[in-house]
From TrEMBL:
Domain PapC N-terminal: from-to ranges: 28-172
GO molecular function: fimbrial usher porin activity
Chain segments annotated as coiled-coil in the UniProt record: none
Identification of the protein by name: Fimbria/pilus outer membrane usher protein
Source organism: Pseudomonas donghuensis
Leader peptide range in chain numbering: 1-25
Length: 818
């Protein structure tokens, strides 16, 4: 008989003995049991529905349909024989249940030592322990609950995590040789180092690069920013101190040293949050994509040939981004794109604010500006209208803005605002100007589409942003004088027709410079042709025009899958220089993929290869290329992180630099598979999983399908709602050891009573004794010690043999304890 069948049979047997429930307490008819000694049966703890033995248990609390973070809960006996127990939820934890304030104020307590909340006193509340799933279920009338959203957790559930050290890094290296240019070796990297202390997050961003050619060598390393921040949950705000970029919905971004206090959109329900930046483009070959803001590297990665879409840039980034695509043939594409900026809307009666005081600073910290103060706010007049405005003040420069936002419900949200500036610039005199801006955003989830951001801006000739003013002040001239700007990010899926589209468009005109433009658009189509099933076609258009270069390109790719993630493909790329054709073979697996590609036409004949591997410690990618003219290159990219806490340490896959992560502890058991087996616990029994969403519920689970035979997980799922930058910590119950069928006997030859509990030295129940002393043990090891407990303080001690074998059945002597 297997463990599962035995447990089920015992449960059915005990259930069948119960008389119809007239109350919580029941009696058992032992006459129906086919056992030798009916007098040697102890079912006292099964007389009460949902009985739990006295003791402390690690459990999650589920309030209605929402599960909260796990915690230690004590079950106390309520009678001398311990036949009934009651769970203790400490008064200090009661606010995390999401009850209304007036309900919490009326709660009384019991068991004075632990100050337990008397939850049963709440009218209509039902409390049910589910020990099989380690969950305490609370059914609470909705009238007693505070605001709830399926994808949002109230403040009472937010977890600040544990103290620890973090390091997130991104390293890229390449060696290339081009005809007549010699060999070039390049190494670049960027990342974030940090320390979490309580609610504070201390961070330092670094970046560096090294380049060496035949006669020239450059090296550079810098700490681009030092800063600290902490969430202020009750205020719905974040406090930040240090070197950062101004994050404003009204004024253009610039770097400063100072202090900022602002309401944090991440703390709002999802429907009121902003959109994260997004970068799209097309790589001609194996390419390195670098995203910068001014001189700071925000993101860097390598991509294979074809369209790419980067969506994991920090949502706190605002303003213009500089995109650089470095191809393996030595060519480079550069363009700028605007980050998405959702209209400034607030809930009815709700104020959102953003206050900053500091001094502008360049990335080399050599150029600084006068001390400034900036403030902005938004007020929700009602459910449809919001007013917003703000000002930025410093010596010789003033900016004042005001606007209005409108919720169009199923048609999205729209806002319009006007900014007026006054600047006194040496040699240019006093400049006054205004700028008009119109923004629109809408997610069409029901139509599988989203118009993330659409914006228009018109500025008068003498209008100056703060960044323009600082450049004019430090460099004796105006470097950028924008006239009009248009921005669009949109996507749409047509599932019935089998294709999807995406468009990214940025266009900017200047009063005294040539205009710049970037368009990236693609269309993907899936279809079947005769015996060929699952064909896909992608058509991509890319146009870049600015002061550096002008480039128009069109690419077409066709792929045909033929089982086990394998694909063959054809693609063509065309620009003003000609057309390149390519044939490829690729294979995609859950943790790795690779591609081999042969090209002809533009830039001559050649071959390229790309390989990427996702591991529990980091993500790796390797690429190489060779062309008939003798040009060749090879590159390696590594992205990952390290997290060190008092609970353990682990290398892990890449997280958003300095971002939120969760540490899973399996109590020293190594090799436990998590999240579809992509990550396993290390030798310390811990693993770290990065998560990109702060203030969202994050579910983490053990992959039971890949769990080794010598492991059992009594608790395999947990969840957490972590504040920004937190190191969450959760412990999952995993037992590693052998399984054994045993017969237990007492010194007088009798058996421990039916229903007795077998517990290990930690108090964990490992089995329930069945008829004739039979028990099935799991998660045990040779020489393990146990106790068998029954009745009123009756128990005996049990030792397993040194040469324990799972396939044998043992008869073991249990020595009474006096």
């Amino acid at each position: 008989m297997t463990a599962g069948k035995f447990t089920l049979s015992l449960g059915v047997l005990i259930s069948s003995l119960a008389l119809p429930l007239a109350s919580l307490a029941v009696d058992f008819n032992l006459d129906v049991m086919d056992v030798d000694e009916r007098g040697s049966i102890d079912l006292s703890r099964f007389k009460t529905a949902n009985y739990v033995m006295p003791g402390e248990y690690l459990m999650s609390i589920q309030v209605n349909d929402q599960k909260l973070a796990e915690r230690s809960l004590h079950f106390y006996a309520t009678d001398p024989d311990a036949t009934t127990t009651r769970v203790c939820v400490p008064m200090s934890q009661a606010p995390s249940l999401g009850l209304k304030e007036e309900v919490l104020k009326k709660l009384s307590s019991w068991h004075g030592e632990d100050n337990c909340a008397d939850l049963e006193s709440i009218q209509g509340l039902r409390l049910t322990p589910d020990m099989e799933h380690s969950v305490l279920r609370l059914s609470v009338p909705q009238a007693w609950m505070e605001y709830r959203d399926p994808n949002w957790s109230p403040i009472s559930e937010w977890d600040e995590g544990i103290p620890g050290f973090i390091l997130d890094y991104n390293l890229n290296s390449s060696v290339s040789q081009h005809s007549g240019a010699g060999t070039t070796r390049q190494v670049s990297g960027n990342g974030t180092m940090g320390l979490n202390v309580g609610a504070w997050r201390l961070r330092g961003d670094f970046q560096g690069s090294s380049s060496q050619t035949r006669n020239y060598k450059t090296q550079d390393f810098s700490w681009s920013s030092f800063y600290a921040y902490r969430p202020l949950p009750r205020q719905g705000a974040k406090l930040m101190v240090g070197e950062v970029n101004l994050n404003s919905k009204l004024f253009d971004s610039f770097r400063y040293q100072g202090i900022n206090l602002a309401t944090d959109d991440q703390m709002l329900p999802p429907s009121l949050r902003g959109y994260a930046p997004e970068v799209v483009g097309v790589a001609k070959g194996n390419a390195r994509v670098t995203v910068r803001q001014d001189d700071r590297v925000l993101y860097e990665t390598t991509v294979p040939p074809g369209p790419f879409r980067i969506r994991d840039i920090n949502s706190a980034v605002s303003g213009k981004l500089d995109i650089e695509i470095s191809e393996d043939d030595g060519s480079t594409q550069r363009y700028q794109t605007e980050t998405a900026n959702v209209p400034y809307l607030s809930r009815p009666g709700y104020f959102r604010y953003n206050m900053t005081v500091g001094r502008p600073s360049s990335y080399d910290r050599e150029d600084t500006g006068p001390t400034f103060a900036a403030g902005e706010m938004s007020w929700g007049m009602n459910s449809d209208w919001s007013l917003f405005g703000g000002s930025l003040l410093t010596q010789d420069y003033t900016a004042v803005a005001g606007g209005i936002g409108r919720n169009l419900h199923e048609f999205g949200v729209v806002s319009v605002d006007v900014t007026h500036t006054r600047a006194d610039v040496p040699e240019l005199g006093q400049l006054r100007g205004s700028s008009l801006r119109l923004n629109y955003a809408k997610r069409f989830d029901e139509y599988d589409s989203e118009l993330n951001f659409a914006g228009y801006r018109f500025s008068q000739r003498q209008f100056m942003t703060m960044d323009d003013f600082l450049n004019a002040r430090n460099n004796d001239g105006v470097q950028r004088n924008s006239k009009t700007a248009y921005t669009l990010l949109a996507s749409k899926s047509f599932r019935d027709l089998g294709f999807s589209t995406h468009v990214s468009y940025t266009h900017e005109n200047y009063w005294d410079q040539s205009s710049s433009e970037n368009v990236s658009a693609y269309l993907s189509r899936y279809f079947d042709v005769g015996r060929f099933k699952g064909l896909s076609m992608t058509l991509s258009l890319n146009r870049t025009r600015n002061n550096w270069e002008s480039d128009n390109s069109l690419s077409l790719s066709l792929t045909l899958p033929f089982g086990d993630g394998q694909r063959i493909g054809y693609d063509a790329y065309a620009n003003k220089g000609g057309v390149r054709h390519a044939a490829s073979y690729s294979k995609y697996e859950p943790s790795r993929n690779y591609q081999v590609r042969a090209t002809t036409g533009l830039d001559g004949d050649g071959v390229q290869g790309y390989y990427s591997q996702h591991t529990a410690q980091a993500d790796y990618s390797l690429n190489g290329s060779y062309r008939e003219n003798g040009s060749q290159s090879v590159g390696l990219s590594v992205r990952g992180g390290a997290t060190v806490t008092a609970k353990g340490a682990a290398l892990h896959p890449p997280a958003l630099n300095g971002g939120t992560r969760i540490m899973l502890d399996t109590d020293g058991v190594a090799g436990v598979p998590l999240q579809n087996g992509e990550t396993r616990t290390n030798a310390m029994g811990v693993a770290v999983l990065p998560t990109f969403n702060s203030y969202y519920r994050t579910d983490v689970q053990i992959d039971l399908n890949r769990l080794p035979d010598d492991m059992d997980a009594s608790k395999s799922v947990t969840e957490a709602t972590l504040t920004e930058g937190a190191i969450g910590y959760r412990k999952l119950t995993v037992i590693q050891g052998k399984k054994a069928l045993v017969t237990l006997k007492l010194p007088d030859g009798s058996y421990p009573p039916f229903g007795a509990s077998l517990v290990d030295t930690s108090g964990r129940e490992v089995a329930i004794v069945a008829d004739s002393g039979f028990a099935y043990l799991t998660g045990i090891n040779a020489s393990s010690e146990f106790q068998v407990v029954w009745g009123r303080n009756k128990r005996c001690n049990l030792n397993l043999p040194d040469n324990l074998q799972s396939e044998q059945r043992y008869t073991l002597l249990c020595q009474p304890q006096f």
